[in-house]
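Reply to dn_fold:

You asked what the input looked like. This is it:
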Amino acid sequence: MKLAKFKDYPFQSDVQLLFIRHAESIGNWEKRILGQCQDKNELTACGQEQAQCLSWRLKTHFPPPTHVYTSPLIRAVQTATIVINGLREENINPPMIQDADLQELNAGILQGLTWTEAQQKYPQLCHRLESQLTWIPIPGGESLQSARHRAQQFITRLLNQHDNDSILWVITHGGFLPYLVSALWGGERVLGFSAGYASVFELWIEQTHWFLRDGNQYNSQLWQIRRFND
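and this is what came back:
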């Protein structure tokens, strides 16, 4: 969804940041709990088409990136590779940086299973997960606090390493995107939303004020959501 305009162009060459969900993988199509599992992680034929359409859309409607960041999981790397190959056709060759902090949440013993398989293998755990909304730790899995912490690590590192004029494309996962958005805005809560395959979230950040606490953290002209799940 493209949002209403505040300013038509980045002010003083803001950091332009795109969060992007990867395209559909085999495990997604089979409705598996993928998490950080690498099995059945390749893109489906439909997913490859989604990534090709994403590549065309990005190079046609957005300025070219200075850097492309991606989760190291195969479904994200394949999406990033297709996007970058599209840029190379225009003689644009940004670096692709794999960052482990962009991985999906680790689902522990449930990774790689469909929900039916999980119910058969871990009936008591699945019953608890189905019967209450509060967080239930999954053996071998990642805590919500850990996911929020690594999202904050990534955002802090990203904005420390890149100044205004940077155009950053970040390819990650549907389950992790709410944690990145929460970390970017500094909230204590993580608001849930369902990101579509190959969807785009566009944000403008005035980096020189980002780490200051001079009252401008409340100035909505300095940080804006331009597209959300578009």
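The domain at 15-106+142-227 is CATH 3.40.50.1240 (Rossmann fold).
Hope that clears it up.
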